[in-house]
Amino acid sequence: MEERIQYLFRRYRDNTCTPQEYEEFFALLRQGSHDEDVRELIRQVYEAEAANTPAETYVNGHGQLVAPFRRNRAILRKALAMAAIFVAAVAAALWLMPERKRGPIVNMARQHTARSEYKHLRLPDGSEVWLNAASTLEFPQQFSESKREVYLTGEAYFDVEHAEQQPFIIHTGKISTTVLGTAFNIKAYPGRKNVVVSVSQGKVSVDYGENSPTTLTKGQQLKVDLGRLAPAGKKTLIAEAAPWKQGDLQYDGETLADIIADLERVYDVKISITQEELRKVPVSTSFKRDIGVEQALQVLCRLTDTKLTLTEGIYTIH
């Protein structure tokens, strides 16, 4: 078992992961190559916690758990809860993993950006990719003759080389976007309500759930609701498919929670929202990235009639 996955697992279990370690841990889970290791770690956690349960706890003839003391029940509940948390975490990561055959991937490259980091990549076919903060792109060292497939978590802008007999397919969880040659942006960060595909030139086909694929052309944008795998909105004549490339942060009807998550990635900071109802408030705004996180948050506070405080390095909206 690799030491790194053990280390990240323990950090996640103890709730001490840094943002970078959190993203690395779930990126490893999505790869699928550590599934057995993680299952073994989950088993060890369960057995270690369950071993603390006093011997008086037993299952009676009716299949009911009998624990003479409250402490016994609390310990067993803790063991069950700990195992359930990690099973849920692995299940969530596997759900987000692109739909592909499990098992080792041969000759795959992986590029990752940390928070507030951006990368420009050139793929084996000459296509170019601009990878936004806290994002991961996996792609083969050499594409097959029939198709070009890549796997994205996060956000990236693609400028794809035209190849009529070799479609280019981007997998983002249960959604795939197919093109022959075009330029477009995909935003698919874990935890977001929607996946957003925006086209700056050419034409793409977005396939999701049981729905018929949606075709987008220059200046069009599609939002897909991940919960329902259904369209959440389609726009035409968008001004810019990837404003973040020019240092612009633009939001059109995004929830405050999604915008805050974006700012945490862009500026590598921690931001808290104290009122749960505020998280779902839709906000439309734009500002330059170089104004800094505090001014950006002040803009959001004015729009939502809230206040901003900074305590021990954590920004709080309340």
Kindly summarize this structure in a few lines.
The chain has 318 residues and is an alpha+beta fold. It has helices spanning 3-13, 19-31, 35-50, 70-96, 256-267, 293-304, and strands at 58-59, 65-66, 108-112, 119-122, 128-131, 136-140, 148-159, 168-172, 175-179, 183-188, 194-201, 203-208, 214-217, 221-225, 230-235, 248-255, 270-273, 282-288, 308-311, 314-317.
Q: What does it look like?
A:
The chain has 318 residues and is an alpha+beta fold. It has three domains: 3-96, no CATH class; 108-242, Jelly Rolls (Sandwich), CATH 2.60.120; 247-317, 3-Layer(bab) Sandwich (Phage tail protein beta-alpha-beta fold). The chain has six helices and 20 strands. The protein has helices at residues 3-13, 19-31, 35-50, 70-96, 256-267, 293-304; strands at 58-59, 65-66, 108-112, 119-122, 128-131, 136-140, 148-159, 168-172, 175-179, 183-188, 194-201, 203-208, 214-217, 221-225, 230-235, 248-255, 270-273, 282-288, 308-311, 314-317. Strands 3, 4, 5, 6, 7, 8, 9, 10, 11, 12, 13, 14 and 15 form a 13-stranded mixed sheet that branches. The longest helix has 27 residues, at 70-96. The protein is globular and about 55 Å long. Residues 249-312 form the Protein FecR C-terminal domain. InterPro entries: FecR, FecR_C, Ferrdict_sens_TM. Pfam families: FecR (PF04773), FecR_C (PF16344).
